[in-house]
């Protein structure tokens, strides 16, 4: 605001006047006239023409109230503001009541500039409005009259209806508006510079073009306009504004200005919109409803019928209207008067009654009817009719279906029950259910009441869970302990069952459907099988024998732990492999895929060599038999396998030892034979030959000297006899073991005689049955006797020797005792002789015991079994 | 001046037979008989015979060893190996031990006396002797 304000200040204290002036100067530029008398005041009002009067309350000559009265009397349109240091509220209120615009306390002077400005502004607007009205007054009489009327109305509107007034002068291109109009736009006069552009900024973008066009059109065509547009206030709220304008032309018919009003019609617009929407909604329902809707008058006239009504009654709307209400209802239906009475009494009715179609057929319809007053205040009724004949049919079909299900329910070989509610109350239970559970009269009782014995078995908790969670539960072979028929004894019952929750129309779990089968017997028999299976397993797993089963294709189907240990393979590795995979001789017998060659149903036993995973060879004894089903078809084979490797190894070792012994015996025998030959040779050579040589020399000498004494001939004769005796001894030695000619005992006797020890040897053969003893054993025993007697005659220097030979059915025993010099048995076996004896006894699986010590003679005892392997006899 | 002899043989039968037969031949005088090697060495050292007839198989010290001892201690005494064995190895062993000759026990009386005489006179084996002996000696 550049204008200089004129401030008339009534104040008798200069310093106070200066304080006020200083305060005002902070905010505005002004001329300050300070006076303190009525006279000066009146003069100042005339000449100074103040924009505002500031007045101290108490002045020397007159007071503020009088000053104010002067202003009012003079009808001067000047704001009057009271400034006072000490003033009661009552006085201030009195001054304000008389027309003061404001009052300021001297110690609150800060408020003064604003108060001054506001007051000046307020007075300026009022002045402008008055000027506007005055201008209208200045028109020609007709116009003045019209405008006066208008002005009155506008003022009324301004006060009552919130209609804002505006004016647009073409000359200035500016708007002038009153406070009401500004309030419609949410602004004050100071916020608006009056330009067309500033106004257009308020217009809703969608309406801008139209508003501009209309406005310009009004200017160019000089036609009045009446339009509705939206504005957007600074707070972004949208308001509908109805704007009306008159174009004022000058004498030449050119427009001078537009004058008009703005009116906020937002509320009306919205109400209008709601009405329109409701109208559309109801129309849509009416048109699209599947139910027949009739609009009637209470006395039975039909005003309108919707398409559904036409379809249901098989008539056009006009036909329905023509027939009237009583043309479409079955008047004989006793339910009809009841409904009509109810509607008359309560204003509405709902029920079922029969209706009549155009062809005269009737159908049951569900009807609801309401009496209402329309917009025009007239009583109307609506009827909504639903054809329920189809539903009735459905209901009947459902009933049939229900009966059929009930039949199934009753007859079912499964237990079925329906439990309702959170406490699982029996709603239904079929006979099988009651029989299985051993209960009766369960309907209406809760599960906990019916099955007190089941408490703690977890089933009620399951029911609760299913009911709460709404998820189905399936139990498989679950054990329930039941107290059937109040027997007192709990019985085990295994059930396969389902807890299936069922729901009501709005999806809430209403109860639980139980469907179950008794599987107790199956479970029991399976448990038995499992138990025996387990037992069998245990036997098989702990068996000392390997167990090996083949399937019908002769592939390994089962092996126990022992079998795996024997072959060193894992069970997994053996599975599916044919037995010949493990056999050492595989490939040799390509046809042999099973345990034994034959498929006969007898047990087959044999020994075979297998190769373990680590490659070592094991001997196994197999006892096998084929597995044959009831139809005689081969289903596989079973083998009981024993690891006999250790036994086999021992047997082999024994065999090797036997062979070794035989070899040694052979060697010894050869040695003996050699010795024998040497002996014979030296006997013949050294002994007999020398004797004969001596005889030869002597006889030669005798022939050359016939006269020599006969002594030499006698000597020669004696030598010859000696030679003959020697030869006889030798020949005896050679033939003694020929038992076919002589008996065993005779041979021994010859032997003794041959060694010329018959005088010291006593032979006891009382307990001997020669025929029971095999030739080879006899020969062995003979050789042992021969060997030992040789030793005795050579080394023992014995004077008594006893030989005892005897036998029973199992063995032959020999004892040779002598009283010779003896020997130390701990020392290396005394000579080839004893070694030979040991070997011979061992090779015949016999046992030998030699007891001797130096100076104590020797006692030899031995036993040889009569039953010998055939090989040894050979 | 007969040739003095010492006969060694474990077989008393042959020992006695030779002693008896040679007593009829004046060319020889059996001054002793013995049945072991040790005895033979002892008698030879004591009696110093011209020739010792030495058997090979003797109890204790055998004939070969005894021959070697006699040849060492009584060099003038000659030794004639004497055995039932006909194998040349025995002859060789005797000769190696210092024997002057070797004869089998089965030899005739003449063969024995001829050999004794030839040895006594340090003569090589004569034509009458067996070819094998000759060959053996020549080797």
Relevant terms:
heterodimer, A: 874 residues, alpha+beta, Rossmann fold, Beta-Lactamase, 6 domains, five-stranded parallel sheet, B: 139 residues, 6 helices, globular
The CATH H-level homologous superfamily of the largest domain in chain A: Histidine kinase-like ATPase, C-terminal domain
The most extensive interface, with participating residues per chain, is: A-B, 20 and 15 residues
What is the class of the largest domain in chain A in the CATH system?
Answer: Alpha Beta
Strands of the largest sheet of chain B, in order across it?
2-1-3-4-5
The overall average pLDDT of chain A, rounded, is 82
Portion in helices of chain A: 40-55%
Which structural class fits the helix and strand makeup of chain B?
alpha/beta
CATH architecture field of the largest domain in chain A: 2-Layer Sandwich
Spatial extent as radius of gyration of chain B: 13 Å
| Unreliable parts of chain B | 126-139
Order of helices and strands of chain B: EHEHEHEHEHH
Mean of pLDDT of chain B: 84
Please identify the structural class of chain A as seen in this structure: alpha+beta
- What share of residues of chain B is helical? 40-55%
Total domains of chain B: 1
Major sheet details of chain A: 5 strands, parallel
Oligomerization category of the chains in this entry: heterodimer
The CATH architecture designation of chain B is 3-Layer(aba) Sandwich
């Amino acid at each position: 605001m550049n204008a200089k304000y004129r401030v008339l200040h009534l104040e008798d204290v200069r310093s106070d006047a200066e304080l006020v002036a200083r305060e005002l100067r902070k905010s505005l530029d002004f001329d300050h006239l300070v006076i303190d008398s009525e006279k000066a005041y009146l003069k100042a009002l005339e000449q100074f023409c103040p924009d505002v009067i500031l007045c101290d309350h108490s002045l020397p000559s007159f007071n503020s109230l009088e000053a104010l009265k002067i202003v009012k009397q003079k009808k001067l349109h000047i704001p009057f503001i009271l400034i006072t240091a000490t003033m009661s509220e009552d006085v201030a209120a009195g001054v304000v009541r008389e027309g003061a615009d404001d009052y300021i306390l001297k110690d609150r002077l800060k408020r003064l500039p604003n108060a001054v400005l506001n007051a000046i502004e307020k007075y300026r607007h009022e002045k402008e409005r008055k000027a506007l009205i005055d201008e209208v007054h200045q028109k020609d009489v007709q116009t003045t009259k019209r405008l006066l009327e208008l002005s009155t109305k506008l003022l009324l509107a301004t006060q009552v209806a919130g209609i804002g007034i505006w004016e647009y002068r073409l000359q200035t291109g500016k708007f002038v508006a009153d406070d009401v109009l500004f309030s419609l736009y949410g602004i004050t006069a100071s916020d608006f510079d009056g330009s067309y552009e500033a106004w257009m900024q308020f217009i809703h973008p969608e309406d801008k073009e139209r508003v501009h066009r209309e406005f310009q059109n009004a200017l160019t065509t000089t036609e009045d306009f009446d339009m509705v547009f939206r504005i957007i206030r600074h707070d972004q709220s949208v308001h509908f504004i109805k704007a009306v304008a008159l174009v004022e032309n000058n004498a030449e018919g050119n427009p001078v200005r537009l004058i008009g009003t703005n009116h906020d019609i937002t509320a009306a617009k919205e109400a209008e919109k709601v009405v329109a929407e409701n109208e559309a909604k109801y129309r849509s329902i009416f048109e699209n409803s599947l139910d027949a809707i009739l609009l009637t008058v209470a006395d039975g006239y039909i005003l309108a019928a919707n398409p559904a009504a036409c379809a249901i009654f098989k008539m056009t709307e006009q036909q329905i209207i023509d027939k009237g209400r009583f043309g479409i209802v079955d008047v004989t239906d006793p339910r009809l008067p009841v409904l009509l009475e109810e509607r008359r009494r309560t204003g509405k009715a709902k029920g079922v009654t029969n209706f009549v179609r155009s062809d005269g057929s009737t159908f049951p319809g569900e009807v609801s009817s309401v009496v209402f007053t329309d917009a025009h205040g007239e009583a109307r009724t609506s009827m909504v009719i639903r054809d329920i004949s189809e539903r009735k049919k459905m209901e009947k079909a459902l009933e049939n279906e229900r009966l059929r299900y009930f039949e199934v329910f009753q007859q079912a070989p499964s237990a079925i029950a329906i439990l309702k509610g959170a406490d699982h109350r029996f709603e239904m239970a079929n006979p099988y259910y009651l029989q299985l559970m051993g209960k009766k009269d369960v309907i209406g009782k809760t599960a906990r009441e019916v099955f007190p014995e089941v408490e703690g078995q977890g089933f009620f908790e399951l029911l609760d869970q299913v009911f709460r969670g709404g998820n189905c539960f399936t139990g498989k072979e679950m054990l329930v302990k039941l107290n059937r028929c109040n027997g007192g004894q709990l019985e085990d019952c295994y059930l396969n069952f389902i807890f299936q929750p069922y729901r009501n129309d709005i999806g809430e779990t209403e109860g639980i459907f139980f469907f179950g089968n008794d599987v107790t017997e199956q479970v029991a028999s399976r448990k038995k099988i499992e138990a025996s299976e387990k037992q069998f397993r245990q036997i098989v797993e702990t068996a000392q024998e390997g167990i090996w089963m083949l399937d019908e294709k002769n592939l390994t189907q089962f092996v126990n732990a022992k079998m795996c240990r024997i072959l060193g393979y894992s069970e997994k590795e053996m599975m599916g492999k044919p037995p010949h995979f493990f056999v050492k001789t595989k490939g040799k017998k390509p046809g042999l895929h099973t345990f034994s060659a034959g498929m006969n149903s007898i047990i087959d036993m044999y020994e075979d060599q297998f190769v373990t995973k680590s490659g070592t060879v094991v001997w196994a004894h197999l006892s096998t038999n084929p597995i044959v089903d009831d139809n005689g078809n081969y289903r596989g084979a079973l083998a009981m396998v024993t690891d006999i490797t250790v036994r086999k190894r021992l047997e082999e070792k024994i065999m090797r030892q036997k062979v070794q012994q035989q070899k040694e015996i052979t060697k010894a025998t050869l040695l003996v034979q050699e010795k024998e030959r040497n002996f014979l040779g030296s006997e013949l050579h050294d002994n007999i030959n020398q004797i004969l040589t001596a005889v030869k020399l002597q006889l030669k000498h005798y022939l050359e000297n016939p006269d020599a004494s006969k002594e030499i001939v006698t000597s020669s004769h004696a030598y010859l006899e000696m030679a003959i005796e020697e030869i006889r001894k030798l020949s005896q030695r050679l033939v003694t073991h020929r038992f076919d000619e002589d008996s065993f005992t005779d041979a021994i006797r010859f032997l003794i005689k041959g060694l010329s020890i018959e005088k010291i040897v006593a032979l006891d053969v009382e307990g001997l049955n020669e025929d029971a003893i095999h030739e080879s054993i006899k020969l062995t025993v003979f050789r042992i006797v021969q060997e030992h007697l040789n030793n005795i005659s050579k080394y023992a220097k014995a004077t008594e020797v006893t030989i005892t030979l005897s036998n029973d059915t199992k063995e032959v025993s020999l004892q040779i005792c002598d009283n010779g010099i003896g020997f130390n048995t701990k020392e290396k076996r005394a000579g080839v002789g004893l070694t030979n004896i040991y070997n011979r006894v061992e090779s015949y699986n016999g046992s030998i015991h030699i007891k001797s010590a130096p100076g104590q003679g020797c006692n030899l005892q031995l036993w040889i079994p009569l039953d010998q392997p055939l090989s040894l006899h050979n | 001046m007969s040739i003095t002899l010492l006969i060694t043989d474990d077989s008393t039968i042959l020992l006695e037979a030779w002693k008896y037969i040679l007593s009829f031949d004046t060319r020889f005088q059996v001054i002793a008989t013995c049945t072991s090697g040790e005895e033979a060495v002892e008698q030879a050292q004591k009696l110093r015979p011209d020739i010792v007839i030495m058997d090979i198989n003797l109890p204790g010290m055998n004939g070969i060893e005894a021959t070697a001892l006699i040849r060492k201690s009584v060099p003038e005494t000659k030794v004639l190996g004497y055995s039932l064995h006909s194998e040349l190895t025995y002859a060789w062993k005797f000769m190696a031990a210092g024997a002057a000759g070797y004869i089998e026990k089965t030899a005739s009386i003449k063969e024995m006396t001829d050999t004794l005489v030839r040895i006594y006179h340090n003569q090589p084996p004569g034509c009458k002797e067996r070819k094998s002996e000759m060959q053996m000696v020549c080797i």
